[in-house]
Amino acid sequence: MRDHTYDDAILDIAAEEMDAGHLRAATTVLAECREDPEVRALRVEVLGEHAIGHADELLELAKSNEDPDLWLLAGTAFIREAWAVRGTGRADSVGKDRFKVFFATLRKSVAPLHEAAKLLPGDAVPWAQLQVAGLGLQVDREQKDEVWREVVARCPTLYPAHWTRLQTLAAKWGGSAEEMMAFAQGSVDAAPTGNPVVAMLPLAHFEVFLEKFEEAVGDRSALRIASLKLRYFGRVREELAAAADRWTSADAQTLPQLQPHPRALQAHNLFAAAFALAEDAPRAKRHLIGMRDHVHDVPWAYVAYRADDLARESSELATKYL
Fold first, then answer.
1. What are phi and psi of 89, to 5 degrees?
2. Which of 144, 158, 175, 186 lies 20 to 30 Å (CA to CA) from residue 219?
3. What is the pLDDT of residues 273-284, one digit of tens each?
4. What is the spatial distance between Cα 13 and Cα 46, in angstroms, rounded to a whole number?
5. CB count, 10 Å around CB of 128?
6. Which DSSP category does 295 fall into?
7. Within 13 Å and on the Cβ side, how many CA atoms surround 269?
8. What digits encode the pLDDT tens for the residues 150-178?
9. With 0-12 CB in 10 A as exposed, 13-18 as middle and 19+ as buried, what is 68?
10. CA-to-CA distance for 291 and 200, rounded, in angstroms?
11. What would the DSSP string read from start to end of 93-126?
């Protein structure tokens, strides 16, 4: 199953209701998780996708109701609409006219997200969405850092906010591999036992690897690609193992947990791919099982030879290690 790396039946029902035109269905499922930022962040992210094309309508509803959940969803919907216009390709593949629409739509997200943050001052999720908006708008580093501080002041382990922060520090967004990797390693050091935010480490390694991998793809050498995968991830295997153990060790599993972490399936994807490429069969198997056949584009789109090979790449590794 692709593009569904979460377990939240209530969220799926709300998404179906939104697809049927019932936009207010989203506010109920967002309101009930105001005290759980991880669940709230996941839900608004998914519902924002289903709200594409309805951002202006949501904004009008928010203005007439002063509902923080509507303001949050409206801001997120503008972000999703903007990225739908831009597409996922590199900047040099996006035309000037599309970029104009992208930036104009993305700017519309900022005011609703600030209004949501004002109405619920302790909510980290509007700030996490402002991170995404700021990344796309290419605001200066000082502004990005300030928004990041607002997030961690409210929820220091928020998984999607760490993901965006790591992207902010990546070379492709104006940072550097060194700064990005230091952030990932610091995230592991600061992570509570049993928290999957440690998956920032394999994510950072995949970002570094992607640059090297793209060079290999350029000369179309399948042998060189396979060798590069093994050399790179074999070299960092011990570091990744220590991070994974911080999340999934026996000690972590004894901690009381009311429900699995909303991003557990995403984190399993990152570790499964990394350990499979390092040819660490026991660890690869553990995390491939943990994926439960839910495939996330990152990292599989990074390691597939072609985009069409994403499902094949993950299934072949699953066959090999399971």
1. -75, 175
2. 175
3. 999 999 999 999
4. 12
5. 30
6. B
7. 28
8. 999 999 999 999 999 999 999 989 999 99
9. buried
10. 17
11. GS-HHHHHHHHHHHHTTHHHHHHHHHHSTT-SHH
